[in-house]
Structures are given as C-alpha cells and as structure tokens.
Design brief:
- It is a single chain.
- The chain is α/β, with parallel strands linked by helices.
- It is 37% helix and 24% strand.
- It has 15 helices and 26 strands.
- It has a seven-stranded mixed beta sheet, with helices on both faces. A six-stranded mixed beta sheet has the order 9-8-7-10-11-24, with helices on both faces. A three-stranded antiparallel beta sheet has the order 5-6-26, with no helix packed on it.
- Helix 7 runs parallel beside helix 8.
- 50% of the residues are buried.
- The mean pLDDT is 97.
C-alpha cells in the first residue's frame, strides 16, 4: 500500500456494496475494453434479493442520516472525497480501462470534474422561506425523499455517478447506485470507498444486467429515480415509476443544433464547433449534432471544419496527442456504423472520413466524419448518432433555420455563434432547449441547472435548483 493512501483498495476485484459489506453473486458479467474488444474483470450480477436487501438497508440508514444536520453531512462528504483524492490516479486508470478515453480526458473526469462537483455542493444550503400575516407564520422547508435509485450511463461513469451521489447525500437521502453494465467498475469502487466514511446503507451500489433497472423502478421502497440515458429507456423508466408515483428526474438524449452566423471568425470558430461535435468521440448527450452554417460562409467554414476534424488524432489512451478514443461498446459501435451505411446508401457526400468504417485490432474506433449538406429528412439530421459523425447544412433565412433547428422531438442543448451578440442572443432565446450556449460549444458546469425540454428529459439536476429535485417541499403553518 502506498504511504499516501489511508486504506488498501484492490482495483482489480469488484463487488456489489450492500449494507456496508462487499457482496458477490452466483452470476457474473464483465465489461469490455473498447480499445481491444477483450473481456475485463468480472462483476457480480445483483439479484432481486440483493436489491431488496439494499433497499432495506437504505431505509434503515435514512432514519438517522436524514436527521444529521446538513453541516455534519457536508463534513462526511468532504471526508469521503478527501479519501477519493488519494486514489485519483487509480480511478483515472480504471476509467481508461472501462471507457477507452484518452488519458487527459479521463483525468479531467476523474479529477477535475469530481473536484468541481464536490466544491459546488459543499457550498450549497437548503433554502427556507418565511411567510407572515396577521393570522399565521408559515415556513416552507425542503425535506429528503428517502431512498434514491441512481441509474447511470456509460459515457461519463464517474461524473454522472458523483453528480447524483452528492445532491442525494447533501439533502439527507440515502442512495443506491446502479452503474451501466458496460462501465460498472468506477462506480462500484466509489461505493466501496464510501463504506470507510459513511454509515452502512447510506451509499450502496449494485451492478447487474437488463433486469436490474426495471426492478429498481417498480420497487416500493425507492422514493426517487434519477436516470441518465436514452429517450427510449427513459420513457420506460417513467412509465414504470408511475406505478408507485416515484419522483423522477430524467436526463435523456439530444440532437443539438449549432447555428453559425455570417459574421464569425471562421478560423477561430470552426475548430471549437468541431470540438463540440467530436469530443468524447461524439458520445455526449449534449454534444453538437447538427450544424447550420450561413450560406455566405458555408464552403470556407466546411473546409475549416474538415481541417479541424482531420487534426483530431484517434487512438489508444496513452498515445501522445490522442484526442479521441473508441466508441465505448459494441452495441453503440454498430448503431453508429448504421449512420455511415445509411449515408453511403443514400449517396451523401462525406466531406471528411470514410464511408465505411475500418476495423482496428478489435477496438471500436471511428474517425471523425462530416456529412456535407444531407437533406432535411435524412437519418443523420433527424436522429442522434451518439458517435463521431455530424452533418453540416447551409441556411439563408433566420426564421427558416430556427424552424429547422427546433424541428426535433429533443431539446437538450443548442449553440449560436456570432460576433453580433444582440442578434446571437435573440436567436438563442428562440431555441427550444434547456441549455443554450452563445459563442461556445456545450460546456456544462455543476454550478448551473441542467435539464432537457421536450423528450430530452423531465426535471433536471445541478445548480441550486437541481438540489431541490431530491427533496419534498413542506410548509409548516403556525397560527397566532
């Protein structure tokens, strides 16, 4: 054990965490290293009994944890992430193994992102509102819900697990984390660390197969589900949660539009737009996925995008200068390949990237690809690829491009780029999306609320407002 580490944690063996203890299982699954397609470590598949035991432990822990003053809860959270900081390099390496991210981006998630989420939440407090008239004094306060079930995705397994864990604990809830079966490792280890700081049952984690999520959403002992994932699955989560009227927060897919005004500095803006489209190999719910460029600058902007995209090195995590890693899993890889096949079949122009994906030593690598002016009804315009392929289209009329940008069932994010800030902001306010960025690609921060419009979600998280999604409002009326 390193002298700088308080406890000995084995980052090669994995367990479910139930009632403060490590728990194995008769059945096991495993992740896959997306850079090679090779099997990673075994993880136990939780049963219905495991989930029942976790819920009972969480309910029991809630009785006392919910009564701990918020400043003391903050002390425990701080202690947990002080402990986590001792293992940041281990978590970075584990994240690389399960996701294939380039090292610099894995470090940003395992270290920088976690640090910002923690510091933000430690600065928050639950509000109270006081009302008084001649008859009464009334106090509105916010109380914890109970047991939170966190269903987490595979694209940012640390950020999105910690991003649900922190508000749940701060508000006095207990939490059961279900990591994606594609990326189970980091979340299980975070829950394992938590047992050295928090009482049993406050933080638990159960990994499983496709049966576990539905078991959580119908479980009567779980008071809230916080879900991040696809629209199709999110709809099933909401339908299932309705049976017990669980509180739900759903953060789902997007098909974000970026509108490029004619006055932009092309050489400066195009590389940033490319980064917004291709970062994390396009596996970002709030990434740029449709790009509308004013016709007067369309060709030079397209060429600048091609130049930027062609400069992004795709490769293994520890290769010097690598910007983009693989698609995280085989299922998503095949889905993204479908967009390439459809674009080729329909004769769309590939401005950069090849119309067929070349297999790379078993890994799920795809070069960043731009489709030049496909029709409005094309699949690459209408659907979210969640991979490194993006369409560009020209526009001439502002009202018409706004109609195109908003012509989607999703509404997660959007961008407007232009030197005329008044015009850019006017357009931004007309975009039907939860987060709109002017002169930047989509850069989220836990300091600000994040949620989707339309089918991109219900409710939201982060910021000051997001904290309240983990609470019930209670008004105490005291008559004079």
């Amino acid at each position: 054990m390193s002298p700088s580490k308080t406890i000995d944690i084995d980052f090669t063996t994995f367990y479910n965490i139930v009632d403060g203890k490590q728990r194995g299982a008769k059945s096991h699954a495993h992740g896959v290293d997306p850079t090679t397609g090779e099997k990673s470590w075994d993880v136990p598949v939780a049963t219905e009994q495991d989930l029942d035991d976790a819920v009972k432990a969480a309910q029991k822990a809630f009785e006392s944890w919910s009564q701990v003053p918020i400043e003391q809860r903050k002390e425990k959270i701080r202690a947990l992430f002080d402990l986590y900081a001792e293992y940041q390099e281990d978590f970075t390496n584990l994240l690389i193994k399960e996701s294939g991210k380039p090292r610099s981006f894995a470090q940003r998630e395992a270290e920088g992102s976690v640090s910002v989420i923690v510091s933000h939440h430690l600065g928050l407090n639950l509000p109270e509102e006081r009302f008084e008239d001649d008859e009464r004094v009334a106090i509105t306060r916010y109380t914890p819900l109970g047991v939170v079930g966190a269903i987490c995705p595979w694209n940012f397994p640390i950020t999105l697990s910690v991003g649900k864990l922190l508000p749940a604990l701060l508000t006095g809830n207990t939490i059961i984390i279900k990591p994606s079966p594609f990326t189970p490792y980091t979340a299980l280890k975070i829950a394992e660390l938590a047992q050295h700081v928090l009482p049993p049952g406050v933080v638990q984690a159960v990994g499983g197969d496709d049966r576990l999520g539905p078991m959580m959403t119908v479980h009567r002992g779980i008071s809230k589900i916080s879900f991040t994932g696809s629209i199709a699955t999110g709809k099933k989560v909401m339908e299932s949660c309705a049976k017990t009227l669980k509180r739900v927060t759903l953060e789902m897919g997007g098909n974000d539009a970026s509108i490029i005004l004619p006055d932009v500095d092309i050489e400066k803006v195009a590389p940033q737009v490319a980064m917004g489209a291709f970062m994390n190999s396009g596996q970002v719910c709030v990434a740029t996925k449709r790009i509308y460029v004013h016709e007067s600058i369309y060709e030079p902007f397209l060429q600048a995008m091609v130049k930027a995209a062609s400069s992004f090195k795709v490769g293994l995590s520890n290769e010097p200068g690598v910007m983009l890693g693989p698609i995280q899993n085989k299922m998503q890889y095949e889905k993204v390949k479908g967009f390439f096949a459809d674009s080729k079949k329909n004769g769309y122009k590939f401005a950069t990237g090849k119309d067929e994906i070349e297999e790379t030593n078993g890994g799920y690598f795809i070069q960043p690809t731009i489709i030049d002016n496909p029709p409005n009804e094309s699949r690459i315009i209408a659907e979210e690829p969640f991979g490194p392929i993006v369409p560009l289209q020209p526009w001439s009329d502002e009202a018409e491009v706004l109609q195109r940008a908003n012509n989607t069932n999703t509404g997660l994010g959007a961008c407007v780029w232009g030197k005329d800030l008044e015009r850019a902001e006017k357009i931004a306010r007309q975009l039907q999306a939860g987060s709109v960025f002017v002169n930047s690609f989509e850069k989220l921060t836990p300091r600000l609320f994040f949620g989707g419009h339309k089918e991109s979600g219900i409710g939201g998280e982060w910021g000051n407002l997001g904290l309240l999604s983990y609470c019930n409002a209670q008004v105490v009326h005291v008559f004079k």
